[in-house]
Amino acid sequence: MGIKFTDTVLPGVVVVEPEVHGDSRGFFLETFHSEKYREAGITLPFVQDNHSRSVKGILRGLHYQISKPQGKLIYMVSGEIFDVAVDIRKGSPTFMGWFGTTLSAENKKQMYVPPGFAHGFCVLSETADVIYKCTDLYYPDLDRSIAWDDPDIGIKWPVDSPLLSPKDSSASRLKDVPAEDVPIYTP
Questions:
Q1: With pLDDT > 90 as the criterion, what percentage of the chain qualifies?
Q2: Percent of the chain predicted with pLDDT > 70
Q3: Could you tell me the pLDDT band of residue 65, with boundaries at 50, 70 and 90?
Q4: How far separated are the first and last CA of the chain, in Å rounded?
Q5: What's the confidence (pLDDT) of residue 187?
Q6: Which strands make up the sheet holding 80-87, listed edge to edge?
Q7: Catalytic annotation, pick one of 37, 75, 112, 132
Q8: Of these residues, 63, 75, 112, 119, which one is catalytic?
Q9: Domains of the chain (ranges, CATH numbers)
Q10: pTM of the shown model
Q11: Residue pLDDT, tens place only, 3-35
């Protein structure tokens, strides 16, 4: 069977279904294999891994980083999330387009979000442990947020009143973000 890479409506955003080897003892899967992912077009090196734990109803995002954008490969250790990528690259043919999918410890799917996209997720299970590999280091002074409920983007979140951090609850709509804080599309 092998790893399955599925392109989405947003060029560069890819859903990955690893090959799972399981039996009565448990399972084994590769969470990353540089050659296989490179063949599928995920070519940037990963330089930082992060682990996030959240409780049901938490929404994190929509986050991105200016001048040193991060691509992210997201997967679940436990629980379930609705994971979202938004194309915020000014001039992109899919500008303000979004794609969302459910990632869970059970379905073992991953999502790759390339640099120049905003990323966010909401927790559907009682708790969720999210692991994500990043293509650049995290720089707090370059970190930015866009409102999770920006009506111009129109994400169909599976939660109505999520629990938000102060940063996320005060995030601006994309149209109000200063031009120098929005990535530019380069074909």
A1: 97
A2: 99
A3: very high
A4: 33
A5: 86
A6: 98-104, 80-87, 117-123, 59-65, 143-145
A7: 132
A8: 63
A9: 45-178 (2.60.120.10)
A10: 0.96
A11: 999 999 999 999 999 999 999 999 999 999 999
Q: Is the pLDDT of residue 97 over 90?
A: yes
**Residue 129, amino acid:** D
Report d(CA 184, CA 91) in Å as an integer.
7
How far is 74 from 83, CA to CA, in rounded Å? 9
For residue 86, give Cα distances in angstroms to 2, 12, 95, 97, 162.
28, 11, 8, 6, 18
Cα 162 → chain centroid? 18
The edge-to-edge listing of strands for the beta sheet with 110-113 is 4-7, 14-17, 110-113, 72-78, 127-134, 48-55
In this structure, the dihedral spanned by the alpha carbons of residues 124, 127, 129 and 130, taken in order and rounded to 10 degrees, is: 30
51 noted as active-site residue: no
Q: What is the mean pLDDT of residues 166-186?
A: 96
**What is the secondary structure of the chain as a DSSP string?**
---EEEE-SSTT-EEEE---EEETTEEE--S--HHHHHHTT--SPP-EEEEEEEETTBEEEEEEESSS---EEEEEEESEEEEEEEE--BT-TTTT-EEEEEEETTT--EEEE-TTEEEEEEE-SSEEEEEEEESS---GGGEEEB-TT-TTT----S-SS-B--HHHHTPBPGGGS-GGGSPBP--
Say whether 139 is catalytic. no
Per-residue confidence (pLDDT) for residue 176, from 0 to 100 = 97
